[in-house]
Amino acid sequence: MTNPMQYRQASADFDRFILDARDTAGLQTTNQAYTMAEAVLRTFRRRLEISDALLFANVLPPVLRAIFVADWDIEEPTVPFSGRLAMTREVQAFRGNHNVSPDSAIADVAAALRRAVDEARLDRVLRRLPQGAVDFWRA
């Protein structure tokens, strides 16, 4: 069997995503964009049961999928979706002084993600997730 294109192109696709996220957020480096994207993904993940998180992960390109599930403490209890400001502060608190995510971080990552995936498929999955998931990924 041949290697599926999504895996052969994984690094190039991720590079495009992270550059897009960097530029959308007005950040200086891809390292800053990586921290922002990881923080947004983890903030979202904290609000999902494992089965819902896996539904979402299957929409993501391979590298983002790996980031989404990496270092997951599955014993940590889920937390409810809250207001955008509170979740943004959670994003900004990730890695403390090494995080320069702007107040628009969630929307910026959402916009870049939507350009990197099949939006219709993403929206179908988000509608199956708990209330708040659709709004979280609104660009």
From TrEMBL:
Protein name: DUF2267 domain-containing protein
Organism: Sinorhizobium glycinis
One Pfam family it belongs to: DUF2267
InterPro entries referenced in this protein's UniProt entry, alphabetically: DUF2267 (IPR018727), DUF2267_sf (IPR038282)
